[in-house]
Amino acid sequence: VRFADLNLRSPVLSYIKVSRCSALRCVTITSNALKKLVLQKQESLCNLSLQCHNLIDVDLSDCESLTNEICKVLSDGGGCPMLRSLILDNCESLSVVELNNSSLVNLSLAGCRSMTFLKLACPKLQVVILDGCDHLERASFCPVGLESLNLGICPKLSVLRIEAPNMSILELKGCGVLSEASINCPCLISLDASFCRQFMDDSLSQTAEACPLIEHLILSSCLSIDVRGLSSLHCLQKLALLDLSYTFLMNLKPVFDSCLQLKVLKLSACKYLSDSSLEPLYREGALPMLVELDLSYSSIGQTAIEELLACCTNLVNVNLNGCTNLHELVCGSDYCRSGDMPIDAFPPDSAPDKTKEIRESSDCQLEVLNCTGCPNIKKVVIPSTANYLNLSKINLNLSANLKEVDLKCSNLYNLNLSNCNSLEILKLDCPRLANLQLLACTMLQEDELKSALSFCGALEILNVHSCPQINTLDFGRLQAVCPTLKRIQSSLIA
């Protein structure tokens, strides 16, 4: 049927569905019984008038001629006071969407590619779908009832306002041009602003003041954040995770001064951090609750790494992947002795004593040590005197120049030395080691391996694939040394 206008008054119809009427331009419906209206794929529909007191669900998907005026019909005062669910998917003529609706719970705007401005004042809104809205530039959610929101799919978003009293998770990852953000979410727990390169100090400060319950704050690649913005972190008394990776920061003092509850600090690829930037950690006992530290691909030096491992005994997980200045890792030396420090390194009668207290307060808690792809490391030695009683996993994969590994770790469970093609010396006294990865250790001799395995009485998995010096064609010889072996991965080179 081809008709251009639909004018309907019905006291009984509760559900109306009209689809693929290509000539339909104008729809007027008056009904107190109607609860669901579906007008999908109405290519010519541009005028819609509704007086439907009990209408709950409206689906206008693929109505590509609908104009911005539809927002007035679907807002308070427009004739649908009970509206709860609204679908406007692929309405490609919508450029400005302004909805002021006190009953709306679910809203989908997927595929509205022409939309550049979005303003929602929907205090009961629980779900909003914005997939494909990749031209959105300005957005306001004030107020909304959302508990979580992902705007990372809107790469052109530059201005954002949010007032959401129930929101706990906000994802802005990838909003690379977001320069102005007002975030007022008093229950916010997690904020991911990764790759928001224009996210400014002012926006961070305002957010920290308005969202004091934030526990996870990810600012990776936020290149515009500096000391002034970090100083506002004192407002976040529950902050447990802070990610500042891939930033240009040189001064971490505001973090050390303000984030006393911090448990995880990620500084991967922070090329401008110097050894002195981290001194408060190992000389002054800063961040006493810190358990995970990521310095991967940073410019941190050999001495600072040694001192961090020796003095920060609270650390459980340390990532040093790709650290070019790491030449050897010899644990167990007392790097925290004040006599080893410059005379003016500490204020009198303060930091040395504090550092000594930290060192003596507990055994080393380190469980995981990752040094993947450290190109210049040549030697790793962890003696029993280092007291790494909790160390269970070491990863040295892709450390091409590593020649010597000497470990006496009573609780080590997993050791990855794959692609360490310079490895020649392997000494292991690890009675609980269960998984040993030696893939492509081309220089390692079979006698060296057998000697190392003789002190690994719990080994179950051994990978010696692409190790030409190791003959595993006769598995019995290795199993005789280590009877617990259950699986040997090998290229079977005779």
TrEMBL record:
It comes from the Eukaryota. SMART domains: LRR_CC. Pfam families: LRR_At5g56370 (PF24758). Residues 233-330 form the F-box/LRR-repeat protein 15/At3g58940/PEG3-like LRR domain. This is F-box/LRR-repeat protein 15/At3g58940/PEG3-like LRR domain-containing protein. It comes from Aegilops tauschii subsp. strangulata (Goatgrass).
